[in-house]
Each structure stands twice: as C-alpha cells, then as structure tokens.
Amino acid sequence: MLNNNEQNSLQRKPERQKKLRLAPLLLLLGGVVIMGTLLMVAWQVYTTNQSPSSTGRGSTQGTEGPTHAPWDDYPEVYWQTLRAQVAQGLHMTEQQIHDNLHSTLLANASTGSNQTEISSADAAQWMSDLASAHGVSQAQLHTIEVTAVQKAHTILVNQHVLTQQQADENMHMMNQDNLNFNMVNAFSRGDKTNGQGK
Fold it and tell me: Where is this region: Disordered (predicted)?
C-alpha cells in the first residue's frame, strides 16, 4: 500500500501531464493568430499600394471605362469647393485657372472619341507649372490639393451625401494622380475632358 505522500504525488502527475499537453497547443494557436495578423496587414499594404491605370483614372477613357471612382458621381458642390479652395491657395481667380487650363493643357491634349484625353503626367505637369508660375512649391501645392479635397468631402458629409466613413475611405483611396485629375476635372466641368462632360 502507498502512503499519503506517494498517493498525492501520483495524483499530481496527470495534472502536470495535462498542462504539458496544453502548452504546445497554445503555442501553435498563438503562432496561427500572429501569422494571420501578418498576412492581413501585408494584404492591406499590397492592395493600397496598387497603382491606378496609366491615366490615373480608368473611368476617364470613355463611357465604358474599367473603373469607376466614387468621386465621378459627386454633386456640383464638391467641384465648386475644389475650385474655390485651389484658386484661393494659388492666389488666383477660378476664371484665371479655367482659362489657363484651356490655353495650355486642353489646347495641347489629343482628342479622341469626342473627348479630350489627358495623361496623368500631363495633368501633373499642368498643376506643377501653374503652381510654379505663382511661386507655390510642390509641397505647398500638394497641401493645397489635399486641403481642398478634404474640405469638399467635409461638405459632402455635412450635406449627408456621404458618411464620414465613406469620405475617409475615398480620401484614403486618392493618390497624387487622383488629386491632379480632380483639379483638372473641377476646372473643366462641362467640357468633354476625360469623360467629364456632365
């Protein structure tokens, strides 16, 4: 027969074995969670860094473009806000910028299928030239563009056209080409420029 100490010792061993079997399982589970998190972060980085089409906006190539950006359907108040904010930032009038767009970028752009085709490089160059001519650096221009788009989105949220989450997502989606095209489109509203004949 066993004394009490021996019995207690034998009874504790199965508990210790249970604990030892549980440790590898918890370690494996932790590894799976960490790997899953890393994969999700990597996927988000990959999808947000995807480059847009060569023109910066797929929907600008006619009426049946492969992509449709959310801002393509924004109401006129969005475009009015962009025009006002950019004109103020560049110390110009909206009409001066509109006239400059027509005398430079649109005058030199190719015309095809009843609309003017503008490349992202052309839009960027026009914005850069316009800013430089008025003593505005590239960093200042970028700030002007981002601020204008943010204020325009804020107005859409305040008018219940977008939720704050939609506005934030759309802002996050924009790259520099999108910003440049938004400015070109804002000052060419009504023209047949990049599909913006609305």
Answer: 49-72
